[in-house]
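Sequence in, structure out. Go.
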Amino acid sequence: MAITGTTMTTEAALYRLMTWLSPAYPLGAFSYSHGLEYAVEAEIVIDGHGLADWTAAVIEYGAGRIDGVLLAAAWRASANDDAAAFDAAATLAAAWRGSAETALENAAQGAAFLAITLAAWPAPSLVALAARHNGRLALPVAVGAAAAAHEVPLPAALAAYLQSFAANLVSAGLRLIPLGQTDGQRAIAALEPAVARAATAALAANLDDLGTACPVVDWCSMRHETQYTRLFRS
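Output:
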């Protein structure tokens, strides 16, 4: 399998991506807000435009940027059967979060994704990776490994993963601000360029390029840990 990620997305690959990154895939993603819950309480995010801006920052400069680079590294390592490179990506992914709750979000969803995908979509290389890491991989690494194992092209996997990340934050915002469903779709439409830029940047980056610039997001996540009333786990 070529590691350039230029292979045309087949119907089977598209089907898998739509399934794995659908809100219906049972990862518990609906229970995480990535610090957004405190941002709404603190009136940092107060409307649909603010929600789109917040989410775009997370996708392009925060955890979305990190996840995209890690997903790409895991995909390439899996496609090349490079255990050392895969382990390097997995180790970084397990550590690269700014707060305890976003670390929980990343690890818990990754473990759930891996377990469900192994049960419903088994592949020998994915089984071997899961066994070597005791079933515990951060979400972007698990998705990258699954996409490579099932010959899902890397550009498509990146775009779908980042769109799913953005859509989950928008969904949290609809419940928190609150907003209507049309407002949510306007926000998701507005986020299309940010998702495309983040996916393109991830394709061109490597693990040495990892870094974030969203201190307010991390601060809100830390404040969320002691928030008096909460709907979300992060």
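Check: The chain has twelve helices and no strands. The two ends are 38 Å apart (CA to CA).
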